[in-house]
Amino acid sequence: MKFLPTLICLFLSASLSTVPIDHLENQVKTVSSADAPALSKKIRRTQDIWIRYQDYQEIVLHRHLADPETNPKTIRSDRQAIRACSRQLERLTDAQAILEKRFQAQYRDIKPGGQANMDRVIPGDHDLPSFGGIYRKQKPASDACLLEGDEDVGEYSLSWIPYIERGTISAGTWAYPSGGMHLGMDVAAPLMSRIVAGANGLILYADDPVPSNCGYLGNYCGWPYGGGNTICMLAAVNGKLYAVSLCHLSNQILVVPGQQVHQGDLLAYSGNSGNSTGPHTHIEVIELKTDAAQAAAYFRQGADFSFGCGWDTPAACSAIGCRVRPEEVF
Ligand SMILES: [Zn+2]
């Protein structure tokens, strides 16, 4: 099967040569509002191809690095190829940003915190409309949410392990450096990084309605608003029970509501879906005052990821729990 990677490479190079980035860059400046969605889709497809090509180049590099007989020149050229992919991906991200800026007026009426213009909400499981549209699950407490079952979180873990492998904190909780409320901690990590259970627990919600990893500010798709593809789980650690939310995931979610998970189990791969400006995972933590059954009973009424704490007051408590800074918990 040695020729298989070569075939993949040939296929990818053939696809790449059919996608002139210059052309896309010129189009974003002149495209009409009616044609913007199609152009956005084209840019995303091109990004996907380049990401796959970059992945392929990384595999090749690793193979060469593992072989002591590889010529150093080969390794240098592998690295150059990877850098070239990154540059193309940056250009595509810029093109998408220009497109977004040009048509920002289209979604100026959509405010964070759930004040969406309902005429423009697309019900059900349709694909995320490309540029300028919004998407929301009409019924958050549906099949994505644990509706009934055994609320067993299993044995309590002794301590946490990181949810995101190889991630770095890119924004802390409560306030952005530029001002504005931020209720979670952002962990930047490359697209498709592994996300594992930080502790033993139970999945309350897991949904991947958003096919694309091309999030942008103002993209209020997924549930809760702008979360993109999300998971909410109960986590049991050292005698305490927490609700942990993970947002902006890729559409590779590997758990279902009602599933008991063990610390370290693979939950999903990270992404950049929804109201997100780059590949990262947004984590929110509520320390619960109740047992698992009561927390699940509250949650299943409306898939409220805030557990009654709302969305605008930091450190707010409800009858069920209190928002806490993930940085202080993990
Ligand atoms: Zn965030």
Structure explained in plain terms:
The longest helix is centred in the first third of the chain and has 31 residues, at 36-66. Strand 2 (174-175) and strand 3 (181-182) form a beta hairpin. Helix 2 runs antiparallel to helix 3, helix 2 (21-30) packs parallel to helix 4 and helix 3 (36-66) packs antiparallel against helix 4 (72-102). The protein has helices spanning 3-17, 21-30, 36-66, 72-102, 292-299, 326-329, and strands spanning 168-171, 174-175, 181-182, 185-188, 194-196, 201-207, 229-237, 240-253, 260-261, 266-270, 280-288, 321-324. By secondary structure, it is of the alpha+beta class. The model is unreliable at 105-140 (pLDDT under 50). The strands form 2 sheets. Strands 1, 4, 5, 6, 7, 8, 9, 10, 11 and 12 form a 10-stranded antiparallel β-sheet that branches. It has 2 domains: 3-102; 139-329, Glucose Permease (Domain IIA). 30% of the residues lie in helices and 20% in strands. Bound molecules: zinc ion. Zinc ion binds next to loops.
